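Field guide to reading this record: the first block holds the primary sequence, the second block holds the structure written as discrete tokens, and the final block holds curator observations. Each block starts with its own label. This record concerns Acyl-CoA carboxylase subunit epsilon, catalogued under organism Aeromicrobium phragmitis.

BLOCK 1 — SEQUENCE
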Amino acid sequence: MSEETTPAKPVLRVVRGDLTEEELAALVAVVAARNAAAAHAADRRPARVRSEWGHPARQHRTPLRVGLGQWRRSAW
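BLOCK 2 — STRUCTURE
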């Protein structure tokens, strides 16, 4: 039983110029590295959502006042 395979579509195609083997190898290395970096970036976990409890903006609140009933009002 013989299976015929269709040739794969080329990933790179040199349209103009006369590349040497070294230049073509460098081009393939750059494209492969870029694709590997993009694939690696897609595999990373999404950033953790920061808890609002320790957010620096919470440090800028109104000062607590001393007086009758102020302890109860400090939570509002």
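BLOCK 3 — OBSERVATIONS
The radius of gyration is 31 Å.
The mean pLDDT is 77.
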